[in-house]
Amino acid sequence: MDTDTVLRPLAVLGGALVVTLLAGGLLDLLLRRADARHGETPLWGLLRHCRLPFQFVLGTTLLRGSYRRAGIPADYAWAVGRALTLALIASAAWLLVRVATAIVDSAYARYAAQHPDAARLRRVRTQVTLIHRVVTAVVVVVAAAAMLLTFPPMRAVGASVLASAGLIGIVAGIAAQSSLGNLFAGLQIAFGDTVRIGDTVVVDGEWGTVEEITLTFLVVRTWDERRITMPVSYFTSKPYENWSRGGAQMTGTVFWHLDHGAPLDLLREQLQRILEGIPEWDGRTGTLAVTDTTPHTIQVRAVVTAKDATDIWTVRCAVRERLIAWLVAHHPYALPRIATSPADPRPPAV
Question: How far apart are CA 319 and CA 277, in angstroms?
């Protein structure tokens, strides 16, 4: 085998590798310095994650432009060129996705630092997440199409594909009606601000927090750590409870069934003492009233408040438990009882 046949490809490959490594190191150095000078934005630090795809783009570009000088036999040169072209398209798409991710994450971080409102942050986070997914999907589709068009047979059938695009679009629309509905529902949720990541919702009787929103499905994490995956079209076509809409503050109720002789004034005083000892209570409301009566008991309701759904659950459980314990210890007669003594005789008729 000719020595030049081996050395020339190695020289081309080694030269491209050296230039790629040097350029990647220089880029990382410049981004580190920019990040140190501009601490008000995390963009430069996030762009450092683009170093690897940048090196792939640069390396494949150098090899694509110089592989013909490597002395590769003609029988293999076309295959090498095609492989390098496909690798260049894929690495360019990878780089674009990484750059878009860095820009989106940086913009959200700066917005979060300037706007501490939790509800607004959840809305922006939801929109940013879905926009990022759309951009990624578009880049991947365009890259895949560009890779396919590098093959001559695909270019040859391009005219016929365009001619039948209308019919294919109709058939695809009918076949993917559900998927397209979820896709548009996802965009509606993102920009209609109906539900956001971090919202507390009740769907189909299940209480939980919205953990993830994509263009097609939504994940709700329940209080017992289960995950419920639902199509996003559910949230645009059916009613559901959103406890975080309009503010995270919550009002909750606690009910007891007590004897008619229960000391209501003492109950109100004890309720205030209990609430003052619960850190999750926000101090807005803490009232107690009789809301119903039966032949054997009265229904007593306490209204309490907290800053969010998690805290209101804690407050309700603590109030219910501590007030029952206080009644058992100090006023057991106030607990509901079943009368077993004979009824008083009716007075004689006059």
Answer: 10
Report CA 215 to chain centroid distance, whole Å: 11
The closest of 299, 193, 207 to 253, measured between CA atoms, is: 299
Q: What angle do CA 43, 46, 48 make, to 5 degrees?
A: 115
Burial of 195 (0-12, 13-18, 19+ CB in 10 A): buried
Query: Which are the contacts of 308, defined by CB distance < 8 A and separation ≥ 6?
Result: 200, 244, 248, 249, 250
Q: How are the residues of the chain apportioned to helix, strand and coil, as percentages rounded to the nearest 5? A: 60, 15, 20
Take residue 126 and report the two structure tokens written for it: 């939801």
Within 8 A by CB and 6+ apart from 57, the residues are 88, 91, 92, 95
94: tokens are 């990878």
* Residue 24 main-chain phi, psi, to 5 deg: -65, -40
Determine the pLDDT at residue 6: 57
123: Cβ contacts below 8 Å, ≥ 6 apart: 193, 196
CA-nearest of 203, 309, 200 to 245 is 200
Residue-wise pLDDT tens digits, 75-98: 667 777 778 888 888 888 888 888
Helices (H), 115-164: 118-149, 152-156, 158-163
Amino acid at 25: G
32-63 pLDDT tens trace: 888 778 777 777 777 788 888 888 888 888 87
Give ∠ CA 33-35-40 in degrees, rounded to 5.
Answer: 140
Domains of the chain: 3-114 (no CATH), 177-242 (2.30.30.60), 250-334 (3.30.70.100)
Q: Which residues, given as ranges, of the chain have pLDDT below 50?
A: 1, 158-165, 167-168, 170-177
What is the rounded distance in angstroms from the CA atom of residue 131 to the CA atom of residue 2?
55
pTM: 0.50
Q: Which amino acid is residue 56, in one-letter code?
A: F
Alpha-carbon torsion 183, 185, 191, 196, what sign? Answer: negative
User: Token pair of 71, please?
Assistant: 């002395």
